[in-house]
Amino acid sequence: xxxxxxxxxxxxxxxxxxxxxxxxxxxxxxxxxxxxxxxxxxxxxxxxxxxxxxxxxxxxxxxxxxxxxxxxxxxxxxxxxxxxxxxxxxxxxxxxxxxxxxxxxxxxxxxxxxxxxxxxxxxxxxxxxxxxxxxxxxxxxxxxxxxxxxxxxxxxxxxxxxxxxxxxxxxxxxxxxxxxxxxxxxxxxxxxxxxxxxxxxxxxxxxxxx
Length: 210
Fold this sequence. Notes:
Blueprint: E1 9-14, H1 20-32, E2 36-41, H2 43-52, H3 57-64, E3 67-69, E4 88-93, H4 95-103, H5 109-119, E5 124-128, H6 135-147, E6 150-151, H7 165-178, H8 194-200
Parallel strand pairs: 1-2, 1-4, 2-3, 4-5, 5-6
């Protein structure tokens, strides 16, 4: 799967918010479709991966990604707009990272890479993870949206009738990749209307959509 004579190149960042499995799943799905994955995980993200998935989760991600970067190495390729990428997903995106992006405080590689996406007018998808939200969170979401980012809280699609947490994670991860807008088949299962759902699930009752 190529774009401009090279594979799709996507930056994936994982911060310390809960939901590290979202980032892990996005990396796996992107690699599955033949994309280059440029991975950067904050120190807090590494701790969350270990706590929520397992002590070897970060190591397995390093092996899975096309290239991985030290979160403190602001001299890395993804810190420059001249290094062509097709978009960036931060999953999960902590409120600290969101605030730093909103203010342009590029003091680590994740925030700098995100800032590059915005200045180069590339897709930046933020799976902002926090609840409930205070006014500062909402204002930061407004700011990054005005700059061109897409704020995508990881909200379950209950209308799809997920049977497990893995189903929920899979759908959110697929939707995040689809939001990059790359010329590739959509990964997320689409909603075909209530009748279409019932045709696939005979005996089920009606459900709503987003």
